[in-house]
Design a protein that fits this description.
106 residues, ABM_dom, Antibiotic biosynthesis monooxygenase, monooxygenase activity
Amino acid sequence: MPTISKEFSGQTVITTFEMTPGTAQDLMDELRDAYDQFISRQPGFLGAGLHMNDAQTRIANYSKWQRREDFQAMLRTPEMRERNRRLSALCSRFEPVMYEVMASYD
């Protein structure tokens, strides 16, 4: 799990996925495969965490990148575009949002 720190100067991305409990595990399996086989091997990738709520209706993904451009380049690859189509089929919506860490507490 990546460390959250105000001193981090790279790009933080939080992506939320909304789905039904019937597709939650399939979506989590697709996300794990995407990280294992592709995303974690992309230039600038620093780490990520996947979280699912108890009702299995939401997944939150926290990822860290060296630069905003690294994350954007990964999204534009043909492989990730195909993976995003599969992810979209398993959820009602998902939205990646870039953030700046303003504070962290241990």
